Structure formats: C-alpha cells, structure tokens
C-alpha cells in the first residue's frame, strides 16, 4: 500500500463466538485479532493497524512494525505512574487542635458561673469548652471573668486573663437551667383575676431560654389580673399581669404619711386609678397634689424622706 493511498477509517464490530467482537474491514486482520486478545480498545487497534499498514509500505519487517506499534500503548500506563509525584507535592498544613483547659481553671470558671445571682434556687448544669491551640504560658494563675453583664444562661463566653505575660483568651461556656415555672391550668381570658385554681407550679422545667420575667412562684400571680388571654399550660410572665384596681379616680382615700420616727394620717381624693403597689395621684384637703403608693383598698402611703 502506498503512503498516500486513501484509507477507509470506518471500523465495524459484530459479535462472533464466546461473546467476542470480530472486526470487519480491518487494515491488518492479524494485528486486529492480536489486539483483541490483548484487551486493547478499538481506538488502539485501529491505530496499530494503520501504523502497520504504513510501515509495510515503507518496507519495514512485520515483527518490528508490530513491536513499534505496540510500544506506546504498553508504555503509557507506566508513564502515568510517577512514584516520585507524592514526594514533590507540598506538605498539607496541620489543623490546629482544640485542647481541654487545666482542671483547676475549669473548676474556677464553673464556680464563677454558678455564683451568678440570676440563678437563684434553680439547678444549673455548666459545660466549659476547650480552647483552640491551648493556653499560652502564664507565670501566675489565669483568672476567669465575665465578658458582659448579661445573665449567663445558655451559650456565652468568659474571659481568661493572665497578668504576666499579659494576655486574655475567650472561652466558650454553656449552661442549662432547671427550676419551677408557673403555668395556667386552663384557658384564661383577658381581665381574669388570678386565683389559686387557675395556676399550678411545674417543677424541674428547663428555663434556659425562658424570659427573665417568667414567674416561678404562685404568689407572684395570685390576686393579679391578666392583661391578655392565655391557653392552658402557658407559662406566666410578669408582663401578662397587672395589679387589680383597688382605688378608682374620684374616690376618697386614706393617706398614711410615714417619716423618720413618725406616722400620720389624713384624707384625700384619688385623681387616678391603681392597684396594690402602683402609684396614684391624690389631692389633699389644702389643694396640694401628691403621688402615693396604693397599699390596700382605699388606702395609700406616702413616705417622707428627710
């Protein structure tokens, strides 16, 4: 075959015995059969046959042609493997490791948190986190302190401080708070005066995410009035309640005046309405107006500071 002869590149495959494909219109049938036995792809067999056909036109021996044609396919997998490639790749950076704090420091952090006045009689669980990279060296004893004035309920941070050398690190802390909460026993409508049968105290409830004005004792609610409707089982808050009005505007009131070493009484007229503990304006008989605190039905109290 001359080097410039036209070559039909189409390669047809058909099934023949044992499930192996047979090649039709192959340029070199012997080479194609050998390629199939070696498990070469159709593209490799086609290239091998074409190389052999061109080589025969140049007068090269058949064995040499076959060896030369097969050489690239045999060497390709070896070239793809580069045993030294892993050695040339840059080393991976090691991630910094979080280290647990010294036990004595953890104990001081827990003591600091548990002493916070917002917990009251509630049960508190404290979990102190680790610190990425650990703590730097400190000649003295690192001391923990609160970062903010917010109550330490839930997730927050404390500051660990060292005097020499001077440094500070923030350490994450998580608390869970459990205690009593006052809940409604049935559906209560707005304006309802709270009685003992309307509420119950639920013990051991988790209060971690409860608002700061949530009630924990029944006496905080009894005798007060709801300002909004509540479904059964709803925790009560101070903002849900108001004092029941015991003095109304225009009514006569008894005014108790209390000062250092004396107590006096008089009468006046209420100019506003209010419940126990609230302030109301009162006009005295001489026309003077004062603001006094309601201490009972029809009674207000005015404290005089010297």
Describe the 3D structure.
- The protein has helices spanning 29-37, 42-57, 62-80, 85-88, 103-114; strands spanning 12-16, 20-24, 98-99, 123-128, 131-132, 143-146, 154-162, 167-184, 199-206, 224-226, 241-243, 245-247, 252-259, 262-270, 274-275, 279-283, 289-296, 299-303.
- By secondary structure, it is of the alpha+beta class.
- It has four domains: 12-74, no CATH class; 98-177, no CATH class; 179-242, Type Iii Antifreeze Protein Isoform Hplc 12, CATH 3.90.1210; 245-303, SH3 type barrels (Roll).
- Strands 4, 6, 7, 8 and 9 form a five-stranded antiparallel β-sheet that branches. The chain has a five-stranded mixed beta barrel with strand order 13-14-16-17-18.
- A hairpin with a 5-residue loop joins β16 and β17.
- α2 (42-57) packs antiparallel against α3.
- Residues 1-24 and 72-83 have low confidence and may be disordered.
